[in-house]
Amino acid sequence: MVVILGYWDVRGMAQAIRLMLEYTETPYQERKYHLGPAPDYDPSEWTNEKEKLGLDFPNLPYFIDGPIKLTQSNAILRYLARKNNLCGETEEEKQREDVLEHQLMDLRMNLVLLCNSPDFEKLKPAYLEQLPKKLQELSRFLGSRPWFVGQKLTYVDFLAYDVLDQQRMFAPDCPELKGNLAQFLQRFEALDKVSAYMRSGRFMKTPIFWRIAKW
Fold it and tell me: What is the structure's pLDDT at 30?
């Protein structure tokens, strides 16, 4: 059965889900919603449908797998992870997943808020000033492990790849994105199914955010 992933026609909060669908070779269709043209950026292509899909909490991204209908990007990731043995197994691994998931979401949302702020240029220097410490913390957390929970690839690695890749695009000269974090990114990109996806016409590198974003 083909599952359905609904989201805007941007990378946004759905990229880690796309990567996991590709890695697990899950047959899927994307329902991409488009904003209208400037200056109004009419969202009605989505809002006209959102209450008709049977979602408990209508939002994007959404995920439909037969009778299962989910929203919230990390809930979707966790569902796919449980189906495909991409979860931590020991208590320590589960703790690392829980902590890292929320840490990564904080980092993600900081960039989202910055890039959608009308004061983007004013706020950007402060963001770049605090970024190295955040990345140093992630680097220490990863340590010499191949993946963030240890020897096993789990759903938080898909999330970590997407968040770190966005930071790499935003601050390409940041030295903290070298070393073990760079090796992690390379290791993830070298996964056979991920590599094939990135070479395909389905892969979306940009746009990351809506057209109204300042970056």
Answer: 97
